[in-house]
Design a protein that fits this description.
The complex is a heterodimer of chains A (206) and B (284). Chain A has 206 residues and is an alpha/beta fold. Chain A has seven helices and nine strands; from the N terminus they run βββαβββαααβαβαβα. Helices cover 29% and strands 24% of the residues of chain A. Chain A is globular and about 50 Å long. Chain B is mainly α and 284 residues long. The chains are: A alpha/beta (206), B mainly alpha (284).
Chain lengths: 206, 284
């Protein structure tokens, strides 16, 4: 099970210069890889391309020998930095989880989610609590590859450790691929088996 | 020294209750008033004529005065308001349903969005009154004709608001996330977008209701709407025009004022319901 990016080039419609040029990337589920880059270097854009949110780019993304499906559930799921932006403000947290899959009680306790939070609206929970929901939602049984885009940047050290611990345990259990995007070098050094600097693989930065 | 009994800084309340309770009480009272007008309007069928009492000023016996046939204007006004509420309500519901369908349809893709924009422009470019008269004649006139006429023409402002709102919601990240979770466009439109536009719909209905009643009164006034034997507010106002110059101000004043009050009550209901629906103010 491999996620391969071949010669990806991308520029925003209004920009003159390419943000990403000829990016080649090969990821698999055996190693946990960290992607490191400066602010504004195109980390998030690359994540969105890899997980199928941005479709207008040159090059191809191949997952498991096939391009990403255009419709239906995407096996590559992205976890955003800001969980409050990816939740409908008129939905209760129960609905937010059910949109993806039927979560069991043990999964809730594993992530430290209390039952009373399920009936609340997103703005009644803190960022750390919301991020737990956001991570749990993306852990649908059909998810084969997980991309965490600055997943824990907004959180304090304790919450960060709790969430990452649980995610890594599940990722290893289900033999999923995991790409951690961050600019926190200590975090990447501790967790990842290998790290990639975006400026090394991006021709636009050279 | 006079001892201070009350703390000035504290707000004064008749009774202590949270905003949610107060809002519910206000909504309940407004609904009770409107329902009582509607129901009593429904039961007022034959208003006795009495030519001895014709053209009387407002008094304790006849609160709103009497008209040229000696009919009690209070009864006529209530009956007229009941009819207006019914026509306005059904017409607003018809209009709202059309705008919701068009607004949600515009979320499907760019082509659907352009089609909806085109339909809105097409309908709003036809003169309003003319279109209402044509549609109500097409449906055979009378109460049914007026309801369809007003209902099928008043959805354009709300549909325009909903379309722009939907366009904004479609750029949100939870919509693209939902697509990546494998949900289809219809599911997203109903589950994601619809709850977010409910407050817009309520505001739209509030703005539509006075319009609906006014246009109903307008075309009745012009003679194309409700038949003259119905006790509609439009008919009452049209009739009162003949007697205004002879000093019978009460024939137009009280029915007009009551109509205004009913419209304000609907406004009050809408505002408070919105307060309850908005998650940021719902738990206060």
């Amino acid at each position: 099970m491999e996620l391969v990016a071949k010669n990806i080039s991308f520029k925003y419609p209004s920009a003159k210069k390419y943000l990403l040029q000829d990016v080649n990337l090969e990821l698999d589920n055996k190693k946990i890889i960290g992607l490191v880059g400066d602010s504004g270097s195109g980390k998030s854009t690359l994540c969105k391309i890899l997980s199928g949110y941005v479709t207008k780019f040159q090059g191809e993304v191949i997952f498991d020998g096939k391009p990403l499906p255009k419709k239906g559930f995407k096996p590559v799921q992205l976890i955003y930095q800001h969980p409050e932006k990816v939740m409908n403000p008129k939905w209760r947290m129960k609905q937010v989880l059910e949109e993806s899959w039927n979560v069991q009680d043990e999964d809730l306790t594993q992530f430290g989610i209390q039952k009373t939070w399920l009936t609340r609206f997103p703005q009644e929970l803190s960022g750390g609590e919301l991020q737990r929901f956001s991570v749990l939602r993306s852990l649908n049984p059909n998810t084969k590859f997980l991309i965490a885009d600055e997943m824990t940047t907004m959180l304090d050290a304790i919450t960060q450790a709790q969430i990452l611990d649980t995610v890594l345990k599940i990722v290893k259990d289900r033999k999923m691929g995991f790409l951690l995007v961050s600019h926190d070098m200590d975090l990447v050094d501790t967790i990842c088996d290998d790290k990639i600097y975006l400026k090394d693989i991006n021709a636009a930065m050279k | 020294m006079i001892k201070k009994k009350y703390n000035d800084k504290e707000q004064w309340f008749i009774y202590h209750a949270n905003l949610r309770t107060k809002t519910l009480v206000v909504i309940g009272l407004a609904i009770v008033i409107i329902l009582s007008i509607f129901i009593s309007g429904y039961f007022i069928r034959d208003i006795p004529t009495n030519f001895v009492n014709a053209m009387q000023m407002p008094s304790l016996e006849h609160l709103f005065g009497t008209d040229w046939m000696g009919r009690d204007m209070f009864q006529r006004t209530i009956a007229g308001l009941g009819l207006s509420i019914m026509v306005g309500f059904i017409a607003s519901v018809v209009s709202t349903i059309i705008s919701i369908i068009l607004g949600l349809f515009s979320s499907f893709n760019k082509f659907a969005d352009e089609v909806v924009a085109g339909i809105i422009d097409l309908f709003s470019s036809i003169p309003h009154i003319l279109l209402i008269i044509l549609v109500s004649m097409m449906f055979g006139g009378g109460v049914y004709g007026v309801i369809m006429g007003v209902g099928l023409t008043h959805w354009t402002p709300l549909a325009r608001v909903l379309r722009s709102e939907v366009k904004e919601i479609m750029t949100k990240e939870y919509i693209s996330l939902s697509e990546n979770l494998g949900r289809n466009k219809v599911w997203i439109a109903i589950k994601h977008i619809f709850p977010l536009i409910i407050s817009q719909i309520i505001v739209g209905v509030i703005l539509m209701f006075p319009h609906a009643i006014m246009h109903e009164a307008a075309i009745t006034f012009l003679g194309f709407g409700l038949p003259p034997h119905e006790p509609a507010i439009g008919v009452i106002l049209a009739e009162s025009m003949h007697y205004l110059s002879s000093g019978c101000w009460w024939l137009a004043f009280y029915p007009g004022l009551s109509l205004l009050l009913v419209v304000l009550l609907f406004d009050l209901i809408g505002e408070n319901v919105e307060k309850l629906l908005n998650p940021e103010t719902a738990q206060e």
